[in-house]
Amino acid sequence: MPLTADVAAQQVQERLRSLHRYIYDIEAERGRSEQCIDQILRAEKAVESSPSNDESSGSSQQMQLKNLYKAGLTAAEQEERVIRLALSKIYEIRAIKNERRIQARHAGNKETIGCGALMKMLLSAAQTLPLHVGRVGERAPALCGALPADSGHVARPGDAVAALVRVSDKEENWILAEVVSWLPAQGKYEVDDIDEEQKNRHVLSKRRVVPLPLMRADPRTDEQALFPKGAVVMALYPQTTCFYRAVVNRLPSSAADPYEVLFEDSSYADGYSPPERVAQRYVIAIKEGKGRST
Asked: 280 burial class (0-12, 13-18, 19+ CB within 10 angstroms)?
């Protein structure tokens, strides 16, 4: 059943109210965590300064410190729980707004976006891509950073993809596109060129469509979910909507940092362009020809 504007607005407001409460809860939980940390630091200082020959006092202090560690861990876990609840509401709001945008497009209410506005929109989409924040020992999931989609993955309407399309009898390009629908009977995607000035819709086999990351990887916790230096990738060339072969020259140093890549370019003596910065969202595994992986 289509999501009407009024229903969507109501759903967003409900989630905003929940988010507002969670933000206050987060501040309260953070205050408890900071209080626990302060108590732990004071207890550790007391243990360090206690006489080494006072065994009974030392044992009591050690037990107190152990209890404080447990209390601090419990407080931190509770703070994490509330933060994740708040994040879930943010993701729900994003999903509702995305569904409304897709419905508007299907209804023919698609607003043409100029080139400058499109580039700003793509930058914003990269900067606001959700960050994977895993629990201790949890590995990053598929479509986080450089990790590919599972073999049975089917991209959803509205998902951003790289699509291999024919631009002439002898030339094919990897373009940035948006999924319109999955056609299960044909095993093909229907996608729109993200550059609305082209007004092109394509029906492509699954091997000609590469889903873009759904989450950013944090180099501090999920380095294995990033392309290594020297990896050959496809990257969105700055100020365009096309993907080209490039080599990773420098990895992101933080979750907000882009890759630094060198695009293959025969006009330069060494065959590569000067370093360009490309967001995680727009750097994907290399594919050649008609979807053949290399």
From this structure: buried
